[in-house]
Every structure is written in structure tokens, then in C-alpha cells.
Write a structure and sequence with these properties.
Elements: E1 2-5, E2 10-13, E3 28-31, H1 39-43, E4 63-64, H2 67-72, E5 91-92
Antiparallel strand pairs: 1-2, 1-3, 4-5
Length: 125
């Protein structure tokens, strides 16, 4: 894959296994070339996707104690005590649409960290 800026200036490349490339905010063109002597095998790549990752601001999401509460708009958990060695299922609700990054679309995936307890860190979680 080759990366170009909006002035068609070459910025870098990677192979099939990919290398991380850090880019500043802007418009880019990514060109990928897949070659094989068997056209049938190449046909399978017509729907190939490109995975892009970028950092976003903190996004808050509600946590629920039951999957039905997520689906039906039930009450989110405020606090939940848990004894040492015990476990409890938690269900993360969808963040508010207006809190998602601009340009987010169906199929985008949010990955990151989840913090339990108070933000000030006095509660270990």
C-alpha cells in the first residue's frame, strides 16, 4: 500500500502485513495493489476493506446490569458493589450519537479502555 497526500506527494508504504503510519489531520489517498496469476483468486479481494485507526476524545457510555435494560432503555447502573472473587455480567450501552466522532458511520468500531470506579482513582477497579 502506498500513501499520498492531497498534493499527490508520496508519504510512505507498507506490505501485506502492514506497518503503522502516523498521519496529521488532512486528506490522503491510499493505493493498494494485489497481484496474482489466478484471476479467480483476485476476485475474492474485490470487497477487501482497509482498517484505519485514530484516537478520539473520551466517550462516556452507560453500563447496565442486564441486556434487556440496554435494549429497552432501562435504568443504567449507578453503583455496583462486588465482593472479592465474585463476578457479575455488565452490558455497555451505545454512546449518544452526538458524542461520537464526526464522520462516524455504521460499521465503525470503538476500541479502548474502560475505567471502573471514580475518575480520581481513589477506588481500585
Amino acid at each position: 500500500m502506498m500513501i499520498f497526500d492531497e498534493k499527490k506527494q508520496y508519504l510512505g508504504c507498507s506490505d501485506a502485513y502492514g506497518n503503522e503510519t502516523t498521519l496529521k489531520k488532512g486528506s490522503y489517498v491510499v493505493r493498494a495493489q494485489v497481484r496474482h496469476e489466478d484471476v479467480n483468486k483476485l476476485e475474492k479481494f474485490k470487497q477487501m476493506i482497509l482498517v484505519l485507526e485514530h484516537e478520539v476524545k473520551e466517550i462516556n457510555a452507560s453500563v447496565f446490569g442486564h441486556q434487556d435494560d440496554v435494549a429497552l432503555g432501562g435504568k443504567a447502573l449507578d453503583k455496583k458493589s462486588l465482593a472479592t472473587g465474585k463476578y457479575v455480567p455488565l452490558f455497555i450501552g451505545e454512546p449518544a450519537h452526538d458524542k461520537l466522532p464526526a464522520g462516524s458511520t455504521v460499521g465503525d468500531v470503538l476500541m479502548g479502555k474502560i475505567h471502573f470506579g471514580q475518575k480520581d482513582g481513589t477506588i481500585k477497579g
